[in-house]
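Hi L.,

You mentioned the student needs an example of a multi-chain input paired with its predicted structure. This one should do, with 438 residues in total across all chains.
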Amino acid sequence: MPAEDKNATAGQGADTARPGTRRPGGRTARTRAAVRDAVLTGLAEHGYSGLTVEYVAEHSGVHKTTLYRRWGGVEELIADTLDLAGEDRWTPPDTGSLEGDLRALATEVLRSFTDPATASPSSAVIAAAFPSERAAEALRAYYAERFARCEAIIDRAVDRGDLPGPRTALDAGALVRALAAPLFFRLFITREGLTEHDTEQAVTVTLAAARAGAFRKGG
Amino acid sequence: MPAEDKNATAGQGADTARPGTRRPGGRTARTRAAVRDAVLTGLAEHGYSGLTVEYVAEHSGVHKTTLYRRWGGVEELIADTLDLAGEDRWTPPDTGSLEGDLRALATEVLRSFTDPATASPSSAVIAAAFPSERAAEALRAYYAERFARCEAIIDRAVDRGDLPGPRTALDAGALVRALAAPLFFRLFITREGLTEHDTEQAVTVTLAAARAGAFRKGG
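Structure written out for the whole complex:
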């Protein structure tokens, strides 16, 4: 999750605008946010295998039996945390050029995973998807929705003439993923770390491929 | 780890040619391979948090006290498993063209992470790097060495005239990582799964960027 998510979702999202608003299952926005914070802290501190409903109860102030009744268990708590993160109002950068937008997006990824305040919980959610199929599903839905929002960058680039159209011939999802993939790859697979040099290289490579027509569908 | 690793390292590597060869710390190649198999099985079955020295002892036939004395603990057992995987004789594909080599390499990644026999232990090692800094270090070393071998693909492409030289001006490491990154990204971050369509797209994008000069150093 980008750094912005956590703050943006703390009661500001469309569905969580007024703390106390009732949601299906009787969860209020305020309760959900408190539970979300406890889940992220617990994941960052103890990982998936060490996260318990007891821990979430203690750190959220929500009673254990309420957590069991309204969520069900640890897997559902993690999934709801990701659902909640996906309900924010985040929009992709809009700098006026394709290159600027891609650079700003890559920089957001860099910051969110290198800032100690957000890196641990974000990494912990990715880690939780290995042992938990339910967390993996929630992560898949989270990123699918995130990258769908990022396609606005491509819409604007085609409108502007920054990329040859027609827009429908372009695999915009593949283009925005091509930018993000090498960053996550260095962070979580090869474990080489991430610097501005790497984000700049991802921008250069993605732009060059896009301008050479590599993201044309069926091409 | 590619599918080939496990078999290739079972006593065939340069350092492990003769089962029984003595290694520093008194580990023999045969013992190391048995321990490696038990570690991978244990990781795949129980994950990092569930892997114990007792499990490895039981499944490798090596006594627990021997494991503690020669390795130290679970983290060192995982690290040695990765070290051993890195000692094989794997070489990158050599098909006669840059496009063919990249395609064959992407296909190897696809197979190793979708074949049930190899997918679980390989994923489990990546998962173990989240909670264990020692496993993360070993994973970093493993992939650094792996991608260094892959640079032979770029050497040959320049020699052949498939890529404009000089070779020293190219960031070959970035090129081979650009091919692999979107595959691992789909598998372990966005959790979208991986098909031949995706490997083909990775080849197209990487080739287009390479031919447009996006992997020139300082470019």
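You could point out the following to them. Residues 1-21 of chain A have pLDDT under 50 and may be disordered. The CA atoms of residues 13 and 35 of chain A lie 16 Å apart.

Best wishes,
N.
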